[in-house]
Amino acid sequence: MPVLRFNNLRSTTAWILPAVFVWLFWTGTAWSRPNSAPDFKQTLKWVTVSANQGNIQSRENLAIWYYFGEGVQPDYATAVKWLKRALDSGSPLVRKWFSDIEFNGMGSWSTREKLRWLRFGTAKGNLQALEALGEKLFKGQGVLQDYQEALNCLIPAAEKGSARAQYLLWIAYTQGAGVPADIQKASAWLKRSAEQGFPEAQLELGRMNAIGSGVPQNDETACKLLRAAAQQGNAQAKNLLWALLQSQRVEPSTDQEEREWIRAAAETGDPEAQTRYGDLWFIGKNMPVHLTHFSRERMALFWYLKAGRQGHPRGQYQLAQMFSRGDGVETNLEKAFFWASLAARQNIQGASDLQKNLRDKMSTAQLSQAKRAVDKVDARVQDRESRQVLYLPPLIN
C-alpha cells in the first residue's frame, strides 16, 4: 500500500482551498436568483457560508433575499444585518444607497428608505425591485416621473418574465413614452403579459378582439380573455362581458357568472344593468339564502331607484309597482303615481293602466301633490335642455 507523502498532501491542499473559495464565491454571485438553482435551500446554505467568510456579493444577495422574501420568509432585521455587514466589508453598492440611513431593525417605514431598497434591488437585478421601481417611475408614484429610468427597470424585468412590466411596456410602446411608438412591439408585449394571466392585459387584449382594434375581430377570443380577467375579479372585464351579453355576442356559462357581469355593470352606473340587478334581488335569484324576503325587496328597491333616477323606464315602472303594493316599503300611492307617470311617458307597457288605477284610489290632495312632483321633474328637464349649447354650422356665403 503506497504511503501518502507530506509533499503530496501540501500540493493537494494547494489546489483544494482555492477551489473551495471559487465554489463559495460562485454560489454567492452566480446564484443570485433563487429560481436559477435546483435546490434553493442548498444555495442559501452555501451563500450564507460564503457571506460569513466575508464575500461581499453574498452578503448583498442575502440582504436582498430577506428583504424581498425571495426563497425565504421576508425578514427585515436579517436583511439589515447582512446589509450592514456588506457595508462594513466595503460594498460600493451598499455605500451608494444606504450609507446615510440609520437602521433600527424595526421595519422599513419611511418612503425614502423603501426607495433606497428598491434602487439597491434593481442594481442587483432583483425582479420585484425592477418591477416595482419601474412602475413608480413610469407613473410618477412617489417619485418624479422618468420614462427613461423607468424603462431601464421595466425592460429587464419584462425579459425576466414580469407580466406587469410587460403590460407597462405595452403602454410605453403604444403611447411613445420614453421610446418611439411601435405598435408591433406593443402588441407583442401585451400578448406575452396576457398569456401569463395578467388581468389588465387580458382585459385590453379582449377589448381589442371584441371591437377589432389592431387585431381581427373575434368574439370567441375576446370572451375567453375577458372571462379570464373577470375570474380574477376585474370589474371592467365583467362590464364588457355585460355589454357583449346585451348585444347577444356571448352567453354566460352559469347564472352566477351572469349575476357577476350584471353587478359589475350596475356598480359602474349602467341603468339597464341596475334594473336587471334589481330584478335578481326581487325574485331572489342566486342571492344569499339567509336574507329575508323583505331584505331582498329592499335591495331591489335600492337598485331600481338608482336606475329610475337616471330615467330608465322599466326601473321607474318597477318602483311604481313596489310603492303601490308595499313591496319592501310602506304603500305610498303618491310615489307610485309619480313613478308610473314617468314610466308611462316612455310608453312602458302597463304603466298607463297602473297610473289610471292609482288615480281612482287617490284623494284630490294626494293626486295634486303627486302631479306637482312630476311637474318639478319636467321643469328640471326643461331647464337642463335650455342650458345646452346648440352647434350651428357657419353660414355659407
Structural key phrases:
single chain, 397 residues, mainly alpha, Serine Threonine Protein Phosphatase 5, Tetratricopeptide repeat, 70% helix, 0% strand, disordered N terminus, disordered C terminus
Tell me what you see in this structure:
This protein has 397 residues and is mainly α. Among the domains are: 213-268, no CATH class; 271-375, Serine Threonine Protein Phosphatase 5, Tetratricopeptide repeat (Alpha Horseshoe). The chain has 20 helices and no strands. The chain has helices at 6-29, 40-52, 56-68, 76-88, 92-98, 111-123, 127-139, 147-159, 163-175, 183-195, 199-211, 219-231, 235-246, 255-267, 271-283, 293-309, 313-325, 333-344, 351-361, 364-387. Helix 2 packs across helix 3. It is elongated and about 95 Å long.
What is the H/E order? HHHHHHHHHHHHHHHHHHHH
Count of alpha and pi helical runs: 20
Shape: elongated
Structural class: mainly alpha
The CATH superfamily of the domain at 271-375 appears as Tetratricopeptide repeat domain
Number of strands: 0
Give the averaged pLDDT, no decimals: 86
Cα distance spanning the termini = 120 Å
Residues in helix, %: 55-70%
Which fold name corresponds to the CATH topology of the domain at 271-375? Serine Threonine Protein Phosphatase 5, Tetratricopeptide repeat
Main pleated-sheet profile: none
Level-1 CATH class name of the domain at 271-375: Mainly Alpha
So, CATH architecture of the domain at 271-375?
Alpha Horseshoe
The radius of gyration is: 33 Å
Indicate the low-confidence ranges by residue numbers: 1-37, 390-397
Strand content: under 5%
